[in-house]
Amino acid sequence: MSFKTKFFRIANPITKNFSFEKFFGSLPFDNLILVYHLVSDEDVKHVKHLFPYRSVRQFEKDLDFLSKHFEFVNWEDYLNQKKTSKPKLLLTFDDGYSEFYNIISPILLRKGIFAINFINPKFIDNKELMWRNKASLLVSEINENNNYKNKISNFSGLGDNLETNISSILKINYENRNQLNEIADFLNIDFNDYLKTNPVYLTTEQLIKLKKDGFGIASHGWDHPLYNQLSLEQQIDNTQKSLDYMMDNQFLNDSFAFPFTDHLLTEQFFDLIFKQNSDLKFTFGAAGLKLDSYSKNIQRIPIETKNYSAEEILKNEIIYYQVLKMLGKNTIKRS
């Protein structure tokens, strides 16, 4: 458990007893960027073991709270630093899940709120299931099927303890992602069949419609790698391939959001990717309220943290930032 997670667990029972106005004056920036993944009232097998997603009711409650205290802006207004009477807020989503088209965009259009969806081009049109989604789906299927529970113990490298086996599956990393295919084959689980009956990602047609409706479509890496497990050359290639897709399809090629985290990314990477892409304005991490020594890399606030509401998360982020500032650790320093 990270220090930040421990801090939130201790702080939240205290901060939830005070109104947001008590914290608002300590907000360190007048521009905030939030990041969600999906919203659903359903049991989403390919996501449920990865992060806690919002229900429709919870999402609308978040938006109503945020609208009271912030002014939602679109990408152009964010770039131009539009003057607003309240702090500006840019809403973003990651991974290009189909729920953005079916559930989220109708809500945002009704409320007049813009958002950018950072997508992985490799998975658009449901050509393949992303490796982390494969892990979650495998765990869901094993938990729901006694035959799978018994059979998985015979897979090479796993044992008789179901909880340990599930943990091992969820820990499989990008480099070893083919192990997920091997486990699926061993259990006779077909990821392609799942995609045919459960469209996980947005389609090209939906992306075009979302663009016409005013939403932004931008890059999240080609196939959702963990960047600090890649070589510098691999980092650049994965990023460039996804930015080229944006250019070829006339989506946004002036922004990029790192999948997972930008932890341990060096100045050399940023220098190279900005040099190669003259239209690129900003890249985005997801470390919460923090400064970054590389000025063009901006940190977003993850909202799907345990079951905290947007209000609770922002209160805790504000307090956490002030603590880090006192310790001189409120800035991510790149080597």
Automatic annotation (TrEMBL):
GO terms for biological process: carbohydrate metabolic process. It comes from the Bacteria. InterPro entries: Glyco_hydro/deAcase_b/a-brl, NODB_dom, Polysacch_Deacetylase. Keywords: Signal. GO terms for molecular function: hydrolase activity, acting on carbon-nitrogen (but not peptide) bonds. CDD domains: CE4_NodB_like_5s_6s (cd10918). It is found in: Secreted. Residues 82-246 form the NodB homology domain. Pfam families: Polysacc_deac_1. GO terms for cellular component: extracellular region. This is Polysaccharide deacetylase. It comes from Epilithonimonas arachidiradicis.
